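Dear support,

We are seeing what looks like truncated structure output for some complexes. This example has two components. We would appreciate it if you could run it in full and send us the complete token output so we can diff it against ours.
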Amino acid sequence: MSNWMFALGSMLVYLVIAFALGLLAGRKRSFWSVSEYAVADRGLGFIVVWFMMGGTVFSAFAFLGGPGMAFSQGAAAYFVPAYLALGILPWYVLGPKVGRIGARKNFVTLGEFVGDRYCSRALTVLIGVISVLAFIQYLTLQIKGMAFIFSILTEGVIPYWFGALLAYGIVVIYVASSGVRGAAWSDVLQGALMLIVAWAVGFYLVNTLHDGPSDMFSAINAAQPDFLTIGRDGSPMSAMAFASVIVVSALGFLMWPHLFTKSYTTTEKRIKLTTLAFPLFGIFLVPVLFVGYAGIGVVAPDALGSADELLPYLITNELGASGWLYGLIGAGSLAAAMSSSDAITHGGSVSFGRDICRAVKPDLSERAQIWIMRLAVVGIGAAAYWLSIFGAAGIIALLVGAYGSIAQFVPAVYGALIWKRGTAVGAISGMVVGIGVNYYYQIVADTTPWDMNAGLIGLLCNIAIFVAVSLITKPVDEALAAEYRNA
Amino acid sequence: MENKPRRRSATGAYIVFLIAAVTLMTVPVFTFADRVEPLVFGLPFNLFWIVLVELAAFVAILCFYVYEHGRGSET
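Here is the complete output from our reference environment:
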């Protein structure tokens, strides 16, 4: 049996199991309840929440982007384990507060939370639109990852378009039918699988291509001094760029609506115990970076179309690897991409249904909302699939801009919890300015002042405008503001 | 002991811990740990430093949790 058959076989086995698990998760649950579809009636168990958060955060980036970054940018990749842990840590404080307010007021999205506090439906819709656009971009990245893995490991037997359709089609079906529970339960399988595979592959490569990690890092350091440091002359990343990207992540990561809304799915203690696991998740990612470092000096940089192709390239060209390894890597990387896609697709459908449709037309029946959300899964899925296979240069910049704009929700969300003077006009103007500035530095300008992260520049402008405009506009009802601050 | 509060909260201390974690992994503290030699457990010193901070963060959150909720059963 040749390698690609092993790869195809194990990927198919994995897909069948993930599909079955996702579908079974929604059994005997109310099909018509928005609360069940969106937040599992606020009752997910600890292990499921743990894997759901981990699996969601640990995306195709972990298998393709992370190693690529380590390979091409050395120490810059250290930001990956750092931001992953720091990005979730604020959840310990934020999550229980949001969960309590959400349970009392029956929220299922971030837009509803912010819109209610500032008494502004416009704010809810603005957040909904940005979220859906950002989700489509995020999904496009995942779908490209799945398609790439399928096509390269089966040596092109499964074409690019079909691999993506197969893997992502399964996600769409189990999310549409089982809602957040489908996504959560399949993440348990996917999370466990990809952690095992990531470690196995990282250590296998380090020990096959080099004599263990010490030997590998010493060799890199001898060949390219400063490549493994931050902020020196020969370093791949300045100290400011490194610090600011981590700060933006630490503040803004939870503003991704699919992560934020997980606050509504479970209890305070489970939120805190899940946060506890994230520093360990950060450490789990270190062997994934080993894959990238192992390629240095082995693979010529110009042998790759892009650094993201490093892992598949190493497997197919340098190792003459066994079929089992092909299969494991295929299944593991599909798992990583799918466990993020399901949460993102689900989050997009809920944002679309509640933050856009219901905010525009508040008298929608629950049954109508459910239909809108389940159909939105298919709609958002189809849009992302189409974009990732065929692309569309015109709107790519728009989507990338939205993707980078998620952190701009920070002042409105944290402001709701700590500052009674925040107003809707302040929040909207801050957000619009922040998004504009971020967009300018991310897409239009070539460099940023002091090499600071574009998102952080946007965020600083956003906070300044939010505070200034809020102070000159009429505050919201004192009791409402107090309810949020004291939650 | 005689006047045990219903629920202990350490939100303020947790925020201080968050800020500390960010400074340990970025500027200014990381700057001092930002070197390749000596390798520790095969890792460059700066990468080992990040792993160490994450382990410390894990222990810190565990302490916060035990302080706030005791060792009672999960749920």
